[in-house]
Amino acid sequence: MEKILVIHGPNLNLLGTREPSIYGRLSLAKINQMLKTQARLAKVNLVIKQSNHEGQLVDLIGQARKKKFQGILINPAAYTHTSVALRDAVAACGLSLVEVHLSNIYAREEFRHKSLISPVASGTILGFGAKSYTLGLAALLDIIRLK
Ligand code: DQA
Prior knowledge:
Order of helices and strands: EHHEHEHEEH
Shape: globular
Strand content: 15-25%
Bound molecules: 1,3,4-trihydroxy-5-OXO-cyclohexanecarboxylic acid
Largest sheet: 5 strands, parallel
Helix content: 25-40%
């Protein structure tokens, strides 16, 4: 069975009540439940983490290969636009990685138009709300299984 690491970045623990007109009304627990159901059907093992701390996110990505994960699904949240450390961790990790965003970052403030992660990700899915995650997981599984 493949092992996939799901990483939620800063402030995503607040989903449900955080700016619902942008991020929707589903809580992070609900999104995780959707992903777990999808994983059970696809016969893949998911480990899900959330952190508000850049270094902790870097550590999670850096240790993923050693911990026998085959791929990473990540919403880097605000660090998407700022973190060279996260980008370097992604570039170094040696795993297939899909970046997801709930919102369409290109339709928002200009400072969100640049992702430091996209150039080093296998692919990016954004703008579909919680569905970005399920589409992202499906895409990641395709990449891993077609390898
Ligand atoms: C986000 C978009 C980011 O710009 C923002 O900082 C987030 C969430 C999204 O999922 O739409 O925290 O990654």
